[in-house]
């Protein structure tokens, strides 16, 4: 009996060790490109493609060039405005739509949700041209409105919030209704406070996705004052030549806000995963 228990314990220890090794290898593979980008951003143009991880001639000139020779600060500001506005507006309207689809009873509710969910099967490049034509007809090209409004809708956010709301006990809402609350007060005073973990996680996902937007800002804007970070970095390979040391320095700066955002909201993201199965 004791030998059987010892064998089981050894197998479990071996399984844990194997999973740990796999996790470490996958982590290194994930982190290595970021480390290489960070290291290469301090290299000179002659050594940026030498294949070595650590820079031989350490220099800050790449970052100096990025912030002095091109309007990189304006690019960062445009990206922040676009990502922040889309995130805030999308979370507000997505949470209302998800609550209606999860809790309110009205004709065609399930059909509407099916239509919304089906849009997840349509990739962005498929609707890029129709979206461009619509925005042009509305006179919103080359403006913040044309840059922001078409990107607000996101079926994934509505779907995830709806599933979260379905897991909230109905007794919580019924108690609020008994106390005299209408649907709006239940939504603002009960549902939204309970949704903080999932909303925090979605805020990070939405901000990250829109901070890294490239295709839509590229086709919807032509003014230099509306250039976002990703489009601006891509211009280094055309207008400013293929200077990979400058590109990697700009990419490093563009990554820093995302890393800071993840570190700030890491706890909320973990909580959203833990509470997504609330019953």
From TrEMBL:
Keywords: Cell membrane, Membrane, Transmembrane, Transmembrane helix, Transport. Pfam families: BPD_transp_1. The chain crosses the membrane at residues 19-38, 75-100, 112-135, 147-165, 186-209, 244-265. It is found in: Cell membrane. It is a multi-pass membrane protein. The keyword Metal-binding does not apply. Residues 76-265 form the ABC transmembrane type-1 domain. Belongs to the binding-protein-dependent transport system permease family. This is Carbohydrate ABC transporter permease. It comes from Streptomyces chiangmaiensis.
